[in-house]
Amino acid sequence: MNEVLEVQFDGWTATPRLPFVLSGNALCMTVPSYSSLLGLIGCCLGRIVTHDEVQFGFHYQYVTEANDLETRQRLEFDGRSVKPHAKGTDAYKREFHVIAATDSAGDLQPCLTLWLNRTDWIDYFRYPIGTPALGRSQDLLRIRFESVRIVAVEPITQAKISGCALPFSSGMQVAGQLVQLADAYEEHTRVGAGRKPINPRVFINLAAGAGQEVSIGNLFRTGEGKSFYLHNWQ
Amino acid sequence: MATLNNITGALVIDGTAAFLNGAGLGAGEDRNKVVPKVFEEMVNGRREKVPYVSAQAWRRWLRNTSNEENNWTPSELQAIGVSKKGTTNKISTQLDPIAFPEDDLFGYMRSGGNDKSGASDEEDEDEAPTKTKAESVQRTSPFKCSVLKGIRGKRTLNVDEGFVHLKENTPLPYSTQFYAAHLEGFFNLEYYRLGQFDNLGSKQELASETVKQYADLLTNKPLGAKGTFKRFTLQNAEQSRKERAAGLLRGLAFLRGGAKQAAFGADVSPKVLILAGLECANPVFNNLFEGSGEMPSLKIKALKQIIEDYRNKLATPVYIGIREGYLQNEDDVKALADGTSVVVGSPISVAQDFIKANLTTTPNE
């Protein structure tokens, strides 16, 4: 592979939700999972995209973390009718990322860069079918029109990378957040039957920043000197 | 001409001296202060506090205003799950996008119950065992919106000091943080999805009972690689789509809501409203305002670039509604009007013009 499709997104907020924590406050991961980014790609294409159709790498960065409060309406059933709960409403805390970093001219800086091996999908990212969002429906992202382009890449064996997720193996000399996640999800064929996880394993999430030296397979560098790990689902 | 698949836009509301969305009490020792929602943004390498209104908060304002403006029956919240103790542990709206425009426009969710074999969540633990298993039903909202956040240079936080006299001569201090800010938001309505419902493996938009109930109003076709999923479309979808989108725009133009109206009384109807029909769903009108002058201004260069980039995907002119005397560069914005690619008027008149030109169902409406 010597060229990839590069797409950059910007926006104000994002919620790469830490899955499996279902009670109490919602928390965020340092970077989004491959499965949710696959969903974002599917949103742009306007259909379900399966993991065997595409390989991609990414770089994600955020500025600060904040907590949103969401009101929960409570009702109670007194045996005859449903009425508002006597204790009133209560509130959930929802952690989210602020991704709005502006330059001196007030223009937004990109928060998410994707590199995909499907250069034929270029028009779907210029003109997405669904509304791109990362996390909740309010975490809208805008695709930077001029950023959607085909760039030349070269494979490398060692790179300084950050703001991405790597499949973890013991002996890796990197610092990050360890999470057990599925690579992707596949729809069952019956309506309402749900999805099945594909290849659950441990990932290490590297926060954006100076970058950490890694030497694993599937590393690439663009002509502009940006290095990334292309996830290959294996 | 591009197809009208999405209605995308931006709005600015005037929140000078306002407290529109609360975040509870101050942190630590500061427990006698009520604070609005705030996050921090990095501006020129410096952290800056930015007041904001959650998307879910102003969506509620918009739901209520749209229902009121169009005499729609609200899709009321109802109890759908009861615990062993008899208290409600799950609620949802009516989950009926055919009878309730609100459900069609804003989506809904009901998580299935009592499926212990699958991905049961913690709240299912105390589910009454006799309850029959419900289907999970979920419609992601065709109307998607950002938070409303303070425009750069136009977002200062202030504190109002108050006293409460529980008994005579015992004044107890309490404080309310509030802001002087102009708040910007952007949105996209996936217009093509109104009156269209997909039942997939992981996301079922119409429950089986709803499909049965409205069988004579719906047509369906197979969907997905294996053709086992279904797409249901309302028979008069084109007409209901126009009516409902028009109703939403009316709600948007007259937006009402916000916390602490008795104390601060802010008018949240948009002072600037930008609307355009697009073939693609990119929410392009974001970060379009700045506040280096006395009043907010519209970044005209950025707007022109957007119009240029998306020229072949714009299904309508770009409608820019501004309240007279509100924008710093009002004259420059008015000069953009050319009658074909940009229409300028008041926020309410552009919403009406948009409806008239693009969402009218009968010639005499």
Structural summary, described in words:
Chain A: This is Type I-B CRISPR-associated protein Cas5. Chain A: It comes from Spirosoma agri. Chain B: InterPro entries: CRISPR-assoc_Cas7/Cst2/DevR. The complex is a heterodimer of chains A (234) and B (365). Chain A is 7% helix and 42% strand. Chain A is mainly beta and 234 residues long. In chain A, a hairpin with a 4-residue loop joins strand 17 (219-222) and strand 18. Chain B is of the alpha+beta class and 365 residues long. In chain B, helix 7 links the parallel strand 19 and strand 20. The longest helix of chain B is centred in the C-terminal third of the chain and has 17 residues, at 237-253. At the A-B interface, strand 4, strand 5, strand 8 and strand 10 of A face strand 2, strand 4, strand 6 and strand 12 of B.
Q: Using only CA atoms, what is the Rg of chain B?
A: 23 Å
Count all strands of chain A and give the number: 18
Alpha plus pi helix count of chain A? 2
Number of strands of chain B: 20
For the record, what CATH class of chain A applies? Alpha Beta
Q: By helix and strand content of chain A, what is the structural category? A: mainly beta
Work out the helix count of chain B. 8
Chain pair with largest interface: A-B, 61 and 70 residues
Distance between the termini of chain B: 24 Å
Global shape of chain A: globular
What oligomeric state best describes the polypeptide chains here?
A: heterodimer
SSE succession of chain A:
EEHEEEEEEEHEEEEEEEEE
Reported by name, the CATH topology of chain A is Alpha-Beta Plaits
Largest sheet of chain A: 7 strands, antiparallel
Rounded average pLDDT of chain A = 90
CATH hierarchy: architecture of chain A: 2-Layer Sandwich
Task: Give the DSSP E fraction of chain B (strand runs of 2 or more residues).
Answer: 25-35%
Instruction: Report the end-to-end length of chain A measured between terminal Cα atoms.
Output: 17 Å
**Major pleated sheet of chain B:** 11 strands, mixed
Shape of chain B: globular
Protein name (chain A): Type I-B CRISPR-associated protein Cas5
Organism (chain B): Spirosoma agri
Region (Disordered) (chain B): 110-139
Keywords (chain B): Antiviral defense
